[in-house]
Input
Amino acid sequence: MVAKREQGNSYLKAAILEVVENQMRNNDPPETRQTCDHLIQEGHSEEDAK
Output
């Protein structure tokens, strides 16, 4: 059961990351890039910031 949940979580994570990357590429909404940049400045990796 745990493996199935982890697989579902990986699909969800991939979908969310795709949305975030599209928002950053299009700068729409600009708050997505601003938040990511702020998190990176605070010491988070780019991967973690997304």
Observations:
- The chain has a mean pLDDT of 89.
